[in-house]
Design goal:
Blueprint (H helix, E strand, L loop, with lengths): L2 H16 L1 H9 L11 H8 L2 H10 L3 H16 L4 H6 L3 H4 L2 H16 L1 H8 L2
Helix pairs in contact: 1-4, 1-8, 5-8
Length: 124
């Protein structure tokens, strides 16, 4: 397993989790100049994927960051999509969901609080 690829995937997923702007661009394709496309479903598959979990459970050595990431994973695991999303599978309902906003804000706080360690992790 290539650790740098895992770390890059982890960072990309954390960026997407923490940014309403990225979610609107990538999921809803609004003012998307990135050339990338994603979705809530794809993000959740990446969160549950090997790379993200490997970084959280094997590479992150900072106890505080690891605890926050484990808590984030628990929030994501417990997340229940709004009925409006379940009925039509339109990501706009996830982006606007107040519960999702709390998860997104927590991911953003993780990035801010642990920015120094996350930058060091990327330079490994």
């Amino acid at each position: 397993m290539n650790e740098q690829i895992c770390i890059n995937t982890f960072v990309e997923v954390l960026d997407e989790l923490s940014s309403v702007d990225l979610q609107v661009k990538l999921w809803l394709n609004i003012e998307n100049e990135t050339g990338l496309i994603s979705s809530y479903t794809e993000l959740m598959e990446n969160v549950s994927g090997t790379d993200f979990n490997y970084v959280v459970h094997q590479l992150v050595q900072d106890a505080s960051l690891k605890a926050d990431l484990v808590q984030l994973l628990a929030l994501l695991d417990a997340y229940e999509e709004p009925k409006s999303y379940v009925q039509c599978r339109n990501d706009v309902y996830i982006v606007a969901d107040p519960v999702w906003k709390k998860i997104r804000d927590f991911a953003k706080a993780i990035k801010q609080i642990h920015s120094v360690y996350l930058k060091q992790l990327q330079k490994r």
